[in-house]
Amino acid sequence: MSQTLQTRLRRRTAAGRPAFTAALVSLLLALAGCASSTPAPESQPEPQASPPAPEADGGEPPGRDVVKPSAPVRYTVQRGDTLWDIAARFLRDPWVWPEVWQVNPQIENPHLIYPGDVITLTWAGDRPQLRVARPSAERDTRRLEPTIRREPLDSAIDSIPADAIRQFLNRPRVATAEEIEEAPYILGNYEGRLISASGNEVFAKGFPDGRADAAQYDVVRAGESLRDPETDEVLAYELIHAGKAHVRDAGPPARLQLAETRREILSGDRLMPPGRGLTQTRYIPRAPESGVDGQIIHMVDAISQVGTNQVVVVNLGEREDLEIGHVLAVEQSGGEVNDPHVDHGEDSRVQLPPQRVGMLMLFKVFDRVAYGLVLEAERPVRLYDDVVRP
Predict the structure, then answer these.
(1) Which of 51, 103, 115, 286 has its CA 20 to 30 A from that of 318?
(2) Pairing relation of β-strands 101-102 and 127-133?
């Protein structure tokens, strides 16, 4: 190339360099401005609606079978929804919710879900994720003036139908024989009658140090024994709630006034603090960490079978490392059938495998028994059905 041509090219390049530099700076400033501002919801990219394709080696990505084929990309939470219902919309097994739930650090109390929140299904590599978006909070971040989101905690959706278990939350339900024997008890009343009612004053003893140490007690008596169906061990006694008693004089003996009596109060009835057995109202459904092998041993307000949103008692508890929120599968025996191609005899009877008929979640756990709410029932759940880890 001639020296003259090289000189001309250098001059053109030098002349165009300021314009190119200015354009590059403008582009970088624009990109920085986009990164520092909050994009409007309509400008956000749509979340991936389906899982990524299998890897080149043909293996299935982990988590692919967790999500329902019919799962929506997003769902707006409605009043009356429960966490279990929402999890069931997205997941084949609602109790794996904690494994795919992703909290948003920009949202206060991300574990509480409110009507109007948007639950979005996304994918991080080969793993599904469920995220919460709070539209009102997003709008607030784009305003110039400071704003506060005010939302009472009790307006968050329930994990399970709260009405179905409300009566079990603030009242002692079961106790061991030792606990009942050691509890304070009612002596009687001024009139010397064996039976008292609401408004009557009664006297009681058996408190630690001889004096009542609480302002109020529940009046209870031992009810039906809860027994293990295989060993006949008495696991606990259900407590019959008879009323409340307000302490007027700590004693000894203590003087109490009866209130809210549901049945007659008898001499010998026991007193237990109402705080005993308080239960949380927010639950995260999850499977137990280890295997479970138990049975339904009692049905509340039923004799032999229950359905969805009814309460049962299982012969498992804290001693089996069970906790509030653990989900158990309910199985029924498959029974036996005759093999038509085998002659009569023991070999002609074939035992069918057990079949899953429902799911329950534990909401109140004691040492050797636990209360569970039936959340799914493909057919009636029966007394002495097996409960296992799902």
Answers:
(1) 103
(2) parallel
